[in-house]
Amino acid sequence: MDPEDFFNPKLFDGEVAVVTGGASGIGLRIARALTARGAEVMITSRSIERLEAAELEIAARTGRIVSSLPCDVREADDVDRLQDFVMSRFGGASIVVNNAAANFFTPAERMTRRAFDTVVQADLYGTFAVTQAFVGHMIEQRHGNILNITIVQPERGFPGFSHSGAAKAGILSLTCSWAFEWGRHGIRVNGIAPGPVPTRGVAENMLATDSPFADDARHVPLGRLGTPEDITSAALFLLSPAASWITGVNLVVDGGLFLNPPVTDS
Ligand SMILES: CCCCCCCCCCC/C=C/C(=O)SCCNC(=O)CCNC(=O)[C@H](O)C(C)(C)COP(=O)(O)OP(=O)(O)OC[C@H]1O[C@@H](n2cnc3c(N)ncnc32)[C@H](O)[C@@H]1OP(=O)(O)O
Ligand SMILES: NC(=O)C1=CN([C@@H]2O[C@H](COP(=O)(O)OP(=O)(O)OC[C@H]3O[C@@H](n4cnc5c(N)ncnc54)[C@H](OP(=O)(O)O)[C@@H]3O)[C@@H](O)[C@H]2O)C=CC1
C-alpha cells in the first residue's frame, strides 16, 4: 500500500498551497499529494518547460488542475509577481512549502562568492521572501501552515556543501523564530530534513565525479535510499490537523542514516 493512501482524500479541502520548486523531485510529489487531497495548489520553479510537464503529470494522476508560475525565488520582482498572482486568483495562501533549493559540490577554499551567494539566495533568502509574501494573509485569517525543507542537523556543517549547510542552518533558525512569533496567530511552522533521495537535482548537482557522496544505501539502517513519497507522507502529516500541536520541529526522515552518518572528506 502507498503510505500516502493513509491520508483522507478530503484532508486539504479549502486550503490553498504554494509549493516552491514544485515542478520536480520532492516538491512535485508534495504538490501532487496536496492536489489529490483537495487543496488548490500553485507550483513555481524557474523552468517553464518543467512547470508545464508537472501540470500535465498532476492532472493525469489526480484529475485536478494545478496553477503554475515561473518564479526565481532569488528575485524580489518574481516573488512579488507570485504574491500578486496568488492573491488575485485565490485571495491568499494557507500553506507554503519552501522546497526550492540549489546545491553543488564545492570545497570551501575554491568556492567563489557568487557560488556561495547563489545557494544562500535560493535557499535562505527564497524561504524568507516567499513566506513573507503570504504570512500577512495567514495572520489575518488566524490560520496557516509553513513547511521548510531542510537537511539533517545543518548546524553540524555539511562538508563540501558549506554554502548549502549554512543556508539550511539559517532556514532552521527561521523555522524556530517564526514558530515562536506566529504561533499566537494560529500559524504552525515546521521543517522536514530528508535523508538521501535520488532525485534529478541530486544526480545532476550532488553526485559530481569529485563529490564525496555515493549513490548507495550502505549506511542507511533501514537499508534503502529515500523516495519522494517518504518525504511527502511526513509533509502531509505535518501540514494536517493531526499535527495541530506540533510547531518548530525539524522532522528527520532519513531511514536512520544520521544515527551514524558516513564521514566525508571533501
Ligand atoms: C542519492 C545519494 C545522495 C547523497 C546525498 C545525501 C546527503 C543528503 C543531503 C542533501 C542535501 C541537499 C540536497 C539538495 O539540495 S538537492 C537539490 C539540488 N537541486 C538543485 O541544485 C537544482 C537547482 N540548481 C541549479 O540549477 C544549479 O545547481 C545552479 C544553482 C548552479 C544554477 O543557478 P545559476 O544558473 O544561477 O548558476 P550559475 O551557473 O550562474 O552559477 C552561479 C555561480 O555558482 C558557481 N557554480 C555553479 N555550479 C557550480 C559547481 N558545480 N561547482 C562550483 N561552482 C559552481 C558558478 O561558477 C557561479 O559562480 P562564478 O560566477 O563565481 O563562477
Ligand atoms: N534529494 C535529497 O537527497 C535531499 C533534498 N533535500 C531538499 O529537498 C528539497 C527538494 O530537493 P530535490 O527534489 O532533491 O531537488 P530538485 O533539484 O529535484 O528540485 C529542486 C527544485 O527547486 C527548483 N529551484 C531551484 N532553484 C530555484 C530558484 N532559484 N527559484 C525557484 N525554484 C528553484 C528547481 O526547479 P528549476 O530548476 O526549474 O528552478 C527544482 O524544481 C530541496 O530543498 C533540497 O535541498 C534535502 C536533503 C536531501
From TrEMBL:
Catalytic activity: (2E)-tetradecenoyl-CoA + NADPH + H(+) = tetradecanoyl-CoA + NADP(+); a (2E)-enoyl-CoA + NADPH + H(+) = a 2,3-saturated acyl-CoA + NADP(+); (2E)-decenoyl-CoA + NADPH + H(+) = decanoyl-CoA + NADP(+); (2E)-octenoyl-CoA + NADPH + H(+) = octanoyl-CoA + NADP(+)
Localisation per UniProt entry: Peroxisome
Top-level enzyme category: oxidoreductase
Primary localization class, coarse: other
Protein keywords: Fatty acid biosynthesis, Fatty acid metabolism, Lipid biosynthesis, Lipid metabolism, NADP, Oxidoreductase, Peroxisome, Phosphoprotein
Pathway given in the UniProt record: Lipid metabolism
Superkingdom in the source lineage: Bacteria
The UniProt record lists the keyword Zinc-finger: no
E.C. number: 1.3.1.38
InterPro entries: NAD(P)-bd_dom_sf (IPR036291), Peroxisomal_t2-enoyl-CoA_red (IPR052388), SDR_fam (IPR002347)
The protein's role, per its UniProt record: Participates in chain elongation of fatty acids. Catalyzes the reduction of trans-2-enoyl-CoAs of varying chain lengths from 6:1 to 16:1, having maximum activity with 10:1 CoA. Has no 2,4-dienoyl-CoA reductase activity.
Assembly and binders: Interacts with PEX5, probably required to target it into peroxisomes.
Protein name: Peroxisomal trans-2-enoyl-CoA reductase
